[in-house]
Amino acid sequence: MPINLSKLNNNFFLYILGLLPLFLLTGTLIPELFILLILLGFLFQVFKNKDFSYFNNRVFFFLLIIYGYLIFNYTVSTDRDLSFSRAFSFIRFPLIIISIDYFLKRNDYKLDIVFNLWAITLVVVVFDLFFQSYFGYNLFGFESYWNNRLSGFMKDELKIAHWLIGFIMPTIAFFWMKNKKNFYTLIASIIFLIILLLINERSNALKGIFILFFILIFNNRFGLKKKFTAIILSIVIITTMVNFNQNIKQRFYLEIKAMPGSVINKNVGDITLEDYIKKSNYGAHFYAAIDIFKRNKLFGTGLKTFRVECANANVEPSMEDRKCSTHPHQIYLEILSEIGFIGFFLFFSFFLMIIFKSIKAYLKNNDLILLSSCGFIVSQILPFLPSGSFFTSFSAIIFWINISLIYSLLNKYK
């Protein structure tokens, strides 16, 4: 039987996409090389066939405007050496969006290869996390340097929850749409909720819970009765785990209870919520970023410059020795301080456009993968919650892969 080389070629790049989550666990070098390989494969096909129509769309054009602004922002950066790589390499994300769409379209938008590989990786990672929560070390013997949190295969990096919420719900959605098994979907969602709490990364756990509720609210396959039942079940699971696991109780109840202004804190005394923020781990970073933005409102100080500009930030004496870090740990403040109001306006206009298009397309086509990836995007721009750096390779790859899925599905239903 003759081999269909064209199909084999398309599938090769889909296998690479399917392996991205696995290799993200080891760092960003291999995933970045995989992305480069997908881009080169796409560009080769485009120039070979002289078909440049994939570049002619509003999403790509909008991202080119953002890219152009980042290049301009580099020219006014207070430290061009720091800003150079992030500014110029951003072009890979607009290109990866249309590249993934190209190979999915050539495969009739069949996502089996991608999600089967994602599912295998997710099952192994979740099992490993349960193993670590019980024994204190994972299958490779890795221990988390913070005893109350899980790190799994990521060893001494506390980023596994962010990885999990970026890939698990689109995967669950794919198998739900394919098999129509509500029971298995329910079990998978419960396992996701439980392991998310056991990881004990509060901000990412709240984002993961938000994604679950986001999907539940917009899911038109469920009536009000089923939605209400699912909400009650989620509350029961969360409450039970908070009460019976001391680490979770400390992180999700006792620490929140200690916050001034908390509805469960009846003895706040003269301490205000602002005082609490200033004394928190990230509070000094927030105030440093705000001061940087105030002095550089339009353009910020340049990508990746918070780590040096924070030294010049004016903060209260009590925060002086804690004001510096590699980034402000909050997406709004990171964007505002580093690329200014213009950059903030461009990025958030794009985010809102994608979210609006996703919800509109979901309500018309009932594609739960589209809804799940949209839920992840919304969770990443929730105000007030701390976050990792938006522009680092790890976070950016997860974010733009979800944008790529959304873009491709929007084209599928166009």
Could you walk me through the main structural features you see in this protein, from its secondary elements to its overall organization?
- The protein is built from 17 helices and no strands.
- With 414 residues, the protein is mainly alpha-helical.
- The protein has two domains: 1-108 and 269-414, no CATH class; 114-257, no CATH class.
- The chain is globular and about 60 Å long.
- 39% of the residues are buried.
Shape annotation: globular
Average pLDDT taken over every residue: 91
Order of helices and strands: HHHHHHHHHHHHHHHHH
Query: In whole angstroms, how far apart are the ends?
Result: 36 Å
Oligomer: single chain
Could you give a quick summary of the protein structure above?
Helices cover 70% and strands 0% of the residues.
Furnish the topology, listing elements before pairings.
Blueprint: H1 5-24, H2 29-49, H3 58-75, H4 80-89, H5 92-106, H6 112-135, H7 160-179, H8 182-199, H9 202-218, H10 224-244, H11 246-257, H12 273-279, H13 283-295, H14 306-309, H15 331-365, H16 368-380, H17 393-412
Helix pairs in contact: 1-2, 1-5, 1-6, 2-5, 3-4, 3-5, 3-15, 5-17, 6-7, 6-8, 7-8, 7-9, 7-16, 7-17, 8-9, 8-10, 9-16, 10-11, 13-15, 15-16, 15-17, 16-17
For this entry, give a set of tags.
single chain, 70% helix, globular, 414 residues, 0% strand, 2 domains, disordered N terminus, mainly alpha, 17 helices
